[in-house]
Amino acid sequence: MRSIVEFLVIALVVTLTPGPGTATILRVAARDGRRAAMSAIVGNSAGVLLWGILSAVGVSSLILASQIAFDTLRLGGATVLIVIGLRSLLHRRRGDESPDQDTPRRRAGWRSGLITSASNPKLAVFFVALFPQFLTRGSPVLPYALGMAAVIVVLDVLWYSTLAFAVDRARTVLKPRVQRGMERFTGAVMVGLGVRLATESR
Length: 202
Hints:
The protein is about 80% helix and about 0% strand.
């Protein structure tokens, strides 16, 4: 069993490493603002906890053991990233910024965060590879897995909230054309991540 400090260091590195979750939060924050981005963070966190539970009950291991199941998840995740990215690239910003649009945007943000996280096969790889190294023989797997997943969620929330706040502050002072450029950039990043996920081997 490794130490808690080692786990915290690994979890922090994973959190700070850019990936689909980071691109999703930045995209939602650039397009719909901080509140929608916070909803996306909640959705992303739910997906992380889901993978933590699946790893504890052995589902993640089954997915990794089956090439067909892993490829299906990988291609599904790649499709999600590409579709969301293309929607950002092709999205036409409307001038309607009324409060009535706040709830739909937050719901859409939550769905984006959850879908991106839940369809990310690298989370399955991460949890299956990481968790056993920090478990003692005979210890209850589910509570430990949920505890470690919760630590990752806390770090994610702190980091992603900082990014969402910074992007939201920037969009309030930037011209609409620059805001649109930010959205297109994050959309292009998501398309690139999706293509890379679809073409890379395990």
